[in-house]
Structure formats: structure tokens, C-alpha cells
């Protein structure tokens, strides 16, 4: 590589020792290569009067030998550079930016294939270069290098692209407060025009089209990283474009849009049109309910997006809550819900944030009016009544009998899977119902009367078919405590009176916290995983201490 311009710099005199302390596993080939390389690089400074090598020294020496490194030795060089570069003075890096960049980027420019781990290290080193010089460099000095960095969004390796997204976020954060930010984000949004999504895409037409489609999808991932840092005008333009893309009804596109907007909603400083955001929320709800396909972050986005809209315009948000609840119901009852751990928190967030006293009292008012007209013309269900009806439908046990009958016709494995799926739905539904009655308070007997009967019906089922009787009893007990025995028994059919009398006799005992009760069913697996993780962490800590001692004894290195 080009010779680096000499400079004094680097206050981290013990950086070599710090690197040696980080990589101590004698069974890890990369750790061994890193330690060997540190020993070689620090060799000329081992004299009694020689000063310890500085970060600048390690940078120059590592870049000089990087051009001929390969395999694990190449990864060792890049790992050391990723640690050393942030320690090097920015003035020195600016003077030597191009030669350092060319040296670091060489593995990705090579025609020879490289491991994804190597690609990730290159991305990390390039990002460290941008971050270190962000406050003192001009755009003309980094624009070409930044373009190469963004082009890695289309790199043929998932891990490298993921590393790019993480590092790009850090780079853009370092550009905040400088003229670099606007130019850097503008270059990202320009990618949407460079790689547009094809509306009439047909994967069977030719081999070149899927490549274009993939580049367009990768571009969406990069744009998502910068959404919260865009100007309000550019962000609005991107959201309008996203809204139009949802009309394609493609899962890969919808999933990436959901990911990006969820990330955007988590940033309280990002301004955007509440109406536009709500339109996108409703489009995603329609996609879920029509196609029954669940993007990974959809539940979290619906929760965060609706909460964001609610903070701008309460009324506009409330009238659309039933649509969002119906979409969340589809997510919860789908097979993919087992992997979507955000669904219960999403329900809880919307209940606690968007269900207010005015909604509840409006619902109670119309319930009383409709009850007084008997068989006459009744008003349409209110927003809160629709929400309560959705939650009640989650507890519908009739589906369980149907699924069980079908599963008995299949093999034992399928039957077990079917039972587990239904149990997971019920456990989550109980938790959501508990949150709703906490919110409704004494009005639960008015707005959830159908659910009260459903719970009592569940309690009559044989234990073999329904192993949640204890949870139902605790929920009924909680309802009696909140609403009063008279209010609850007034809406119950005659066949459930005896059960309520028994529940009322237990009310004198303190009610257990419902989330703890619900954990009794689902947490056994979680507790096992938690204990397993704790034991694994303990073993790794012990192993690491042992490895460090073994490495020191084995190699007897001195820095």
C-alpha cells in the first residue's frame, strides 16, 4: 500500500496489552492469530528503552502487512484495525484516509471470494474510519468512499448486509450536526430511483429481473436505517412511496416496510404526518387480514404506529382501533404467532394507551340504552364494544373442539402440535383479557358480559380437554372483586350461579397477580430457557477465565 504520512499521535500506549487481554481462547484459531500478530507488530519496540507502540504505529504496521494476508490472518489484521482505528487521531487519518481506506477495502474489491466474517470486519473498519473523521472532514474527501460503502448494500452475503445496516446507523449518527448528514442521507434516498421496484415483476420471465428485485429490496433496508435522520420533506416523500409499494401486496416488500416504520416510530424526535402514518397502518392491517401472512415486526409496528397517531390526534386514532385489533387477532391466532412474542405487549400497549374513560363511558351508555329498548332497533356497536368483542373471540373454545377432532384423525405428533398451538393462544388471550378488565374496572360487567359467560362455560369443560380451570377461576375471582358479586351474577345464566357463589366465598383471600398465574402455564418453557441461559453464561465465564490462564501459561507472552 502507499506509505502513510508520519505523525505523532496516540495516547493509548497499552493498546497492544488490551488487545491481548480480549482474545484469550487457546482453542480459537482467530484468537491465536491475533495474539501472534500483536507479538510480531510490537517486536521492534521490545527494547528496554523503546517506547511502547501507539495506535498510529499499529495502524501503519497492520496496513503494511494487510496486502499479503489471507484466511484467518486476514481476519486477525482486520480485527486489530477495527480496534485501533478509533484510537488514531483524526488529523492523521484525514491525511492518510485514501491509502488506509484502499488497504482496508481490498478484500471486498478482490475477485476472489471471501468469508462473510471477513466482509463484516471490512465493513466495520470502513465505518470506524468515517466515524473517527466525521467532525473534521469535508464531503469531497469522503463522497467516493461513502458511495463504495453504500454499494455494499447489494453484497451477496446476508451477514455483510446486516453488518452494513448496523454500521451505517452509527455512521449517520456521527454525521449529525455536520454538513455531511444531509448529503449522506440524500445519497441513500437516491437509491430508491436507482433501484425501483418493478410493479409487474414475474420471476419466470428472465434471470436478470430477480436480481433487480433483490437490489430494490436491499435498498429498502438501507433507506430504513436513515428514515429518522431524513429531513421532514424527504421523510414524507419516502413514506408516500412506501404507501404506494404496499399496494403490490408482496410479503418481502411489506415486511421491510414494517421493519423500517417500526424503527421510525421508536424515535420520538422524528416528525411525520399522522394521517399518512395511519393510512400505512390501515394498509398493513388489510394486508394481514386478507393474506394471513405475518411480517416479523408487524405487531410491534401496529402498536407503536397507532400510539404515535394517538399522540397527534386521539379521535382519528380511536375510530380505527377495531381494525387494528382485528389484525392483531389474526396475528395472535396464526401459526406464526408462536414466533411473534410482541403480540401480547402490542395488545396491552394499545389497551393501556388508547382506551380512555370517554370511550368506556360511551360504550356503557349505549349498552344501557340498547338494553332498555328490548327487541327494538339498537344502535351500532361502539368502538369499545367492538374491541371487547375481539378479545372475547380470542377465548372462543368452540374452535378448540373442532381442531381437536381434526387432530385426532392425524398422527400423535400433529395432535400434540395442535394442542400446543391452542394452549398458546389461550394463555395469551387470558393475559390480554386480564389487561382489559383492569382498564375497564367496574364497567367490565357491562362491556364484557359475553366474555364472562364464555369463561364460565370453559370452567364446565372436562379437565382433560381444558387444563386451565385454575386460571379461569382466578379471572372470575378478579372480576367479582372489581365489579362486585351482584353485578357479575346479574349477567350470568342460571347454570353458572353455583360457580359464582363458590368464587365469591374465596374473594376474602387476596387475589394473586394474574400475570404470575399466567406464567404458571407458559413460563415453564421460559423458565427452562432462562435457567439454561444462566448456566450457559456461568460455564462460559468459567471457561473464559480458564482459557486466559491456560493461554498465558502456554504462550508465556509478554507485552
Characteristics of this structure?
559 residues, mainly alpha, 3 domains, 28 helices, elongated, disordered C terminus
Description:
- The protein is mainly α and 559 residues long.
- The protein has 3 domains: 1-133, no CATH class; 231-354; 391-529, no CATH class.
- It has helices spanning 15-22, 29-41, 55-66, 71-84, 90-95, 97-109, 116-133, 139-151, 158-175, 180-194, 208-226, 232-246, 251-265, 274-291, 298-312, 314-318, 321-333, 343-354, 357-372, 383-394, 398-408, 412-440, 444-447, 449-459, 469-483, 485-489, 497-506, 514-555.
- The longest helix has 42 residues, at 514-555.
- The two termini are 27 Å apart.
**Through-space gap between termini:** 27 Å
* Total number of helices: 28
Low-confidence regions: 1-11, 203-210, 397-410, 511-529, 551-559
Q: Which sequence of SSEs, written as H and E, runs from N to C?
A: HHHHHHHHHHHHHHHHHHHHHHHHHHHH
Helical content class: over 70%
Overall shape: elongated
Q: How many distinct folded domains? A: 3
- The overall average pLDDT, rounded, is 81
SSE diagram, text form:
Elements: H1 15-22, H2 29-41, H3 55-66, H4 71-84, H5 90-95, H6 97-109, H7 116-133, H8 139-151, H9 158-175, H10 180-194, H11 208-226, H12 232-246, H13 251-265, H14 274-291, H15 298-312, H16 314-318, H17 321-333, H18 343-354, H19 357-372, H20 383-394, H21 398-408, H22 412-440, H23 444-447, H24 449-459, H25 469-483, H26 485-489, H27 497-506, H28 514-555
Helix pairs in contact: 2-4, 3-4, 4-7, 6-7, 7-9, 8-10, 9-11, 10-11, 11-13, 12-14, 13-15, 14-15, 14-17, 15-18, 17-18, 17-20, 18-22, 20-22, 21-22, 22-25, 22-28, 24-25, 25-27
Amino acid at each position: 500500500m502507499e506509505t502513510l504520512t508520519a505523525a505523532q499521535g496516540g495516547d493509548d500506549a497499552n493498546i497492544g496489552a488490551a488487545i491481548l487481554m480480549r482474545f484469550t481462547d487457546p482453542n480459537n484459531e482467530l484468537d491465536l492469530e491475533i495474539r501472534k500478530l500483536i507479538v510480531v507488530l510490537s517486536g521492534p519496540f521490545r527494547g528496554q528503552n523503546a517506547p511502547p507502540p501507539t495506535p498510529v504505529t499499529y495502524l501503519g504496521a497492520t496496513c503494511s502487512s494487510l496486502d499479503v494476508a489471507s484466511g484467518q490472518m486476514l481476519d486477525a489484521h482486520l480485527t486489530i484495525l477495527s480496534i485501533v482505528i478509533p484510537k488514531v487521531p483524526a488529523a492523521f487519518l484525514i491525511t492518510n484516509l485514501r491509502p488506509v481506506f484502499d488497504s482496508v477495502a481490498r478484500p471486498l474489491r478482490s475477485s476472489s471470494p471471501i468469508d462473510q466474517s471477513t466482509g463484516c470486519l471490512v465493513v466495520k473498519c470502513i465505518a470506524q474510519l468515517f466515524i473517527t473523521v466525521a467532525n473534521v472532514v469535508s464531503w469531497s474527501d469522503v463522497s467516493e468512499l461513502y458511495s463504495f460503502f453504500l454499494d455494499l448494500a447489494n453484497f451477496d452475503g446476508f451477514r455483510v448486509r446486516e453488518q452494513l445496516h448496523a454500521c451505517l446507523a452509527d455512521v449517520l449518527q456521527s454525521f449529525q450536526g455536520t454538513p455531511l448528514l444531509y448529503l449522506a442521507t440524500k445519497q441513500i434516498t437516491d437509491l430508491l430511483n436507482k433501484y425501483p421496484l418493478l410493479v409487474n415483476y414475474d420471476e419466470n420471465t428472465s434471470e436478470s429481473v430477480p436480481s433487480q428485485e433483490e437490489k430494490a429490496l436491499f435498498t429498502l433496508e438501507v433507506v430504513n436505517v436513515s428514515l429518522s435522520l431524513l429531513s421532514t420533506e424527504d421523510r414524507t416523500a419516502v413514506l408516500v412511496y412506501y404507501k404506494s409499494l404496499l399496494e403490490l401486496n408482496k410479503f418481502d416488500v411489506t415486511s421491510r416496510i414494517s421493519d423500517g416504520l417500526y424503527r421510525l416510530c421508536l424515535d420520538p424526535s422524528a416528525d411525520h404526518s399522522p394521517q399518512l402514518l395511519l393510512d400505512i397502518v390501515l394498509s398493513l392491517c388489510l394486508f394481514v387480514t386478507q393474506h394471513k401472512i405475518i411480517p416479523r415486526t408487524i405487531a410491534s409496528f401496529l402498536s407503536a404506529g397507532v400510539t404515535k397517531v394517538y399522540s397527534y390526534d386521539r379521535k382519528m386514532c380511536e375510530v380505527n382501533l377495531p381494525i387494528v385489533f382485528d389484525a392483531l387477532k389474526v396475528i395472535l391466532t396464526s401459526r406464526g404467532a408462536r414466533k411473534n412474542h410482541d403480540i401480547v405487549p402490542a395488545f396491552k400497549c394499545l389497551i393501556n394507551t388508547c382506551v380512555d374513560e370517554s370511550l368506556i363511558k360511551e360504550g356503557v351508555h349505549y349498552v344501557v340504552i340498547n338494553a332498555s329498548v328490548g327487541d327494538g332497533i339498537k344502535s351500532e356497536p361502539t368502538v369499545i364494544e367492538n374491541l371487547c368483542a375481539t378479545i372475547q373471540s380470542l377465548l372462543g373454545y368452540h374452535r378448540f373442539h373442532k381442531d381437536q377432532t381434526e387432530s385426532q384423525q392425524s398422527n400423535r405428533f400433529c395432535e400434540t402440535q395442535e394442542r400446543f398451538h391452542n394452549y398458546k393462544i389461550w394463555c395469551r388471550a387470558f393475559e390480554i383479557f386480564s389487561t382489559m378488565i383492569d382498564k375497564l374496572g367496574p364497567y367490565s360487567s357491562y362491556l364484557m358480559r359475553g366474555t364472562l359467560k364464555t369463561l364460565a362455560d370453559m370452567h364446565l369443560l372436562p379437565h382433560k380437554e381444558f387444563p386451565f380451570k385454575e386460571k379461569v377461576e382466578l379471572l372470575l375471582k378478579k372480576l367479582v372483586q372489581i365489579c362486585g358479586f351482584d353485578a357479575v351474577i346479574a349477567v350470568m345464566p342460571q347454570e353458572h350461579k353455583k360457580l359464582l357463589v363458590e368464587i365469591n366465598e374465596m374473594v376474602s383471600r387476596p387475589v394473586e397477580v394474574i400475570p404470575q398465574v399466567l406464567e404458571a402455564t407458559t413460563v415453564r418453557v421460559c423458565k427452562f430457557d432462562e435457567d439454561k441461559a444462566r448456566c450457559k453464561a456461568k460455564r462460559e465465564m468459567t471457561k473464559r477465565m480458564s482459557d486466559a490462564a491456560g493461554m498465558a501459561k502456554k504462550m508465556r507472552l509478554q507485552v
